[in-house]
Input
Amino acid sequence: MSAKQKLLLGAHISTSGGLHKSLERGASIGCTTMQIFTKSNRQWNAKKLTLDEIAEFKQAVKKHDIDPIVVHCTYLINIGSPNQETGKKSLAALVMELQRCQELGLKYLVLHPGSHLNTDEDSALERIAQNIDAAFEAVPGDSMILLETMAGQGSGTCYKFEHIAKVRMLSKHKRRVGVCLDTCHTFVAGYDMRTKKEYEKMWQHFDETIGLDHLKVLHVNDSKKDLGSRVDRHEDLGKGKIGLEGFRLLFNDERFFAIPKIIETPKADLCDDLRNMQTAVNLLSQETREKLKVCVVE
Ligand SMILES: [Zn+2]
Ligand SMILES: [Zn+2]
Output
């Protein structure tokens, strides 16, 4: 009897009380994958991880069988900045994030690639590539940086697949550069996924520019704002402008069964994550259910 592949579904989970606590929380709602911050997302600095913290975390990972655990970088980092001081500070923070991933044995670090702050996109993309390379050189190992597809707010870059393809192309360490696609961001950046035709067109374009092999994580979020609005406001699955059909296509797409799907919808507590995970499960077709084992608490 061959074991069924698990539905890889989870949410961004709080680490309050210690990194290892997040595993218990994730497991309590049936996450088979999840995302965390390994430090405050609104501060530059963090205390170095102690050996005890690392050991406790790894023990919890073993116990709860949640894999992969994706790490999201602090929001302050802007390695695309033309300002030297911000650039330097951002690179140091990225090195710290990557170091923590290596220490914790976590492979995926999701990064908002950066903003050009009223210079130009191309030079920002070059700075981003140089800085991720500098981070890889400072922290050897297997942990990857996943460039997140962005909404295109303000002077943010990487709202086009071409931008991400360019950063990968410029990097000397492509093996360690992957992509995290956020459905809310791509939608407000102008990539429609509401019908089968548009959905297929989006992925074909992704494959032709970046390559589907480089997609490592999906952020599954509906959008409060319209297609092409370039305003980033996440919404519960099915309650926003994307609507259920787009997510039905995504969750039943066999190409992405092995890609972790992380929900980052508005939440007061874990019940909100669970509700969105249940929405996703309800979209699974009979055929998908025959292929995937569902672990979400029902
Ligand atoms: Zn993000
Ligand atoms: Zn967002």
Remarks:
- The CA atoms of residues 64 and 86 lie 39 Å apart.
- DSSP finds ten helices and twelve strands in the chain.
